[in-house]
Amino acid sequence: VGHVEALAWGEGVLFVAGWVRLAEGGAPPLLRLAAPGGAALDWPLRRLRARPDLPASAEAPAGFGFEALIPFPEPPGEVSAELLAGGRAAPLGPGPRTPAPWQPRGALEPPNRYGVAGWVLDVPGRAVALAIGRLRIPLRLDQPRPDLPFDTGGEDRPLGFRITLEALAEALRAADPGATLLDGEAREMTLL
Asked: CA-based Rg of the chain, rounded to a whole angstrom?
């Protein structure tokens, strides 16, 4: 029926990624997460995406992947997962497991004539910055990214950012008045 491939907890969120096999159509299935001695949490899987590595066969429907960042205030200890679909519940493998520590995810896209863009999936409200050497440029996650598979619940939270070349040059000049973007010097950029 499915499998949990990644499970991580930190700062009040639980990241769960995996896949499920189910027939297309109908209401979104629910992912039920339960910790021993705690209440179960049901999360609708709204952002399923096709998994080419899990094609349909005569015995099973196609597989769909999911990645969700779920509010989960307390460290859960062991977590077990079930898929609730079509009025039935089925356990997801590999069984109860302890979440790893949460690590933010993100990517910088290749710079272009408009500037630098990318995305970050992290705990809501945490500050994000672009580092260029010792320079730190605060970023606002204000760009919708419907191309990303992440489900953050309810309304899609903007996970993308864009900083124009003008803003990048201004920040660089503020840190080093003699510097320009076109001075021929290579600069490494890192998301913080």
From this structure: 20
